[in-house]
Description:
The complex is a heterodimer.
Chain A: H1 2-24, E1 26-29, H2 30-40, E2 45-48, H3 55-62, E3 68-71, H4 75-89, E4 93-97, H5 101-115, E5 120-126, H6 142-146, E6 152-155, H7 162-174, E7 180-186, H8 187-191, E8 193-196, H9 215-226, E9 231-235, H10 237-241, H11 244-257, E10 261-263, E11 278-281, H12 288-296, E12 299-303, H13 309-312, E13 323-328, E14 342-345, H14 348-361, H15 368-382, H16 398-409, E15 414-418, H17 422-430, E16 439-440, H18 451-461, E17 466-472, H19 483-488, E18 494-499, H20 504-513, H21 529-535, E19 539-543, H22 549-558, E20 563-568, H23 597-600, H24 603-607
Parallel strand pairs in A: 2-3, 2-4, 4-5, 5-7, 6-7, 9-10, 9-12, 10-11, 12-13, 13-14, 15-16, 15-17, 17-18, 18-20, 19-20
Antiparallel strand pairs in A: 1-8
Helix pairs in contact in A: 2-3, 2-7, 4-5, 4-18, 9-14, 11-14, 12-15, 16-17, 16-22
Chain B: E1 8-17, H1 22-32, E2 39-46, E3 51-60, H2 62-74, E4 78-83, H3 84-87, E5 90-101, H4 105-116, E6 120-125, E7 128-135, H5 137-147, E8 152-157, E9 161-164
Antiparallel strand pairs in B: 1-3, 1-4, 2-3, 5-7, 5-8, 5-9, 6-7
Amino acid sequence: MTTQAMTKTATTKTATTETAAEAAGREMTGAEMVLAALADHGVEHLFGYPGGAVLPIYDEIFKQDQVKHILVRHEQGAAHAAEGYARSTGKVGCLLVTSGPGATNAVTGLADALMDSIPLVCITGQVATHLIGNDAFQECDTVGITRPCTKHNWLVRDIADLPRILHEAFYVASSGRPGPVVVDIPKDIQFTKGIYRGPQNVEHKTYKPKLKAEDAKIREAVELMRGAKKPVFYTGGGVINSGPEASRLLRELVKATGFPITSTLMGLGAYPAADPQWLGMLGMHGTYEANWAMHDCDVMICVGARFDDRITGRLDAFSPGSKKIHIDIDPSSINKNVKVDLPIIGDCRSVLEDMVRAWRSNSYEADKAALGAWWKQIETWRSRKSLSFKQTGDIIKPQYAVQRLYELTKDRDVYITTEVGQHQMWAAQHFHFQEPNRWMTSGGLGTMGYGLPASVGVQLAHPGSLVIDIAGEASVQMTMQEISTAVQYRLPIKIFILNNQYMGMVRQWQELLHGGRYAESYSEALPDFVKLAEAYHAVGIRCEKAGELDDAIREMINVNRPVIFDCVVDQAENCFPMIPSGRAHNEMLLSDSTESIEDAVTEEGKMMV
Amino acid sequence: MPPAEPIASHTLSILVDNEPGVLARVIGLFSGRGYNIDSLTVSETEHEKQVSRITIVTRGTPMVVEQIKNQLERLVPVHRVVDMTTKGPSIARELAMVKVRGRGDHRVEALRLADAFRARVIDASIESFVFEITGASDKIDQFVSLMLPLGLVEVSRTGVAAIGRGPEGM
């Protein structure tokens, strides 16, 4: 007993001394501080690429084993991998790149993360402070270049500022509406010694986002919902960013009210696609029922979405008869594109929690009769089966490929990433998500080449899961080199290429708007993807016949190595439904529409993208 | 289509941390999002707290101006943004230095008008004056246009600084 008690006292004493020491700080170099801060913020994986201006930091990486460095093949890959990692875990994604080209290569990923509100901390090396502005070798104005594509950035000019800036970086990236940040550290600062203090009580002096909404607004919202005759929930990526609890609360509220729900591309998975209240995705390639419900509703409850142009279609005809409630953590999202009636500023989780409580504590019930009629209307729209397609013969329809992939993987622990284009829309339409954080796609920026590196990040975060990049043959070539990263770290990602030998969405728009003149959208001289896989020491599979697809997909799933799957699909298939540019939600084109596509687009619409 | 909302001029006061790049952030936001800047002034106002005050005169519909305000508040080093035009009575002033060259009657007339506008002579030569004038922008505009036929050489203006009336700060 005595010994034990003594040990205990001793431990407590050590702990106290450590805390005191922590408060006083420890002396270390700037490079050591970077690693200390990463460890203090619980970072396990760091994506990066070495170079002259970050060598001191790499030297510190070499000396420790807490933070695992993942060597990518291109800095853009590091940024997308960090995004995939962040999106699938809810943690902050981290990357480390060198000055000049290292930083500029990461810019696409930073811009992508800003548009989709993904928390990233990007550490860039910079030339020594006395060389800044002298056009030194591998110098660029990193903070200048990244200013408009980050949430915030810092150039560290004094070692005394470095610990604070590193902690602030994590705070800013992950608080409020998340986003990417850049910390630019000159090489001499990395060598300079200073005092490091831990991240306790980091509080930014100006940046304090508001998380909780005012009670009056919550009351007003549930009052509106209670009186609604034709309500619809319209949810987005903000629900995912707010964490799994937000998704749970959303489900609770949707169930309690009995209202229909649709979601943006970024919000898929927050509400289970298997549920009957789910209308499918809305927007340019959304379902008939979702878009019609948005157009005809009388109360719209927008949760963590931003009325983006892919969603609204023609603005002056967007849901003309509805009262709009808009829940968003970012006040600048309110009234940006669409004027709303009831803005609620706050974090989705907190607001949804308050709304569920307000709905339940008042024992509110929806207007049953009106809701019944509304659902009847929705069912007639749903019976239009807007996502249907016909798979006949040997040639694989791309929708069929995604559908089979879904059917054969749905009982597994599966994560999907995508590139950008037709395949992305087919994936969103035909792969059904039941849980949040399972769907990683480049929504805002629309970055071709996102999916492969993102799947590397996802697989690292979820080593035992099945991670599939649903890709197009054009997109995937933009960051194909990252398959080498996957092979190096034994990450068994599956690259499922819907190969139609076209930049499919470009081809579809050329068909729509430019008289079928397919300027430069044909993928000439494609590589043999099977051989390419083998050259990278990955596994290559090709499938050209519908009848052989299931077996080929099973083979892909069962290989415990990275796979490039070349799924040869119908070249002429277009992505429907489609709201042509400049048209409204109730002017959708379906795959069996009689209206010619070219007539559907107005002159004004042609100006839009 | 709802009737187009009227475009009006608004004066925004912005308190920011006086850190490197903060002005670039504010200006970049305006150019990146296609907002107008009619006037811009910036200076440190509280040295101990390292706070600067930026005054921007911009134009837009009420929805656009609200959006500008929200976008500014989203910038990490921004403490507060106040729309001086809508928040309540406020005063806006700017200072201009106006150089006029001339002899004889023109010179006398310039001096007489300067007196009427309460502009001070801060430099003089046999054939020129530099006037200093402070006031609301339209008063300065008017003074400058009067100087034009009298031999106006050049004008240097500070841009607008604004502050609310009454005892409260922003």
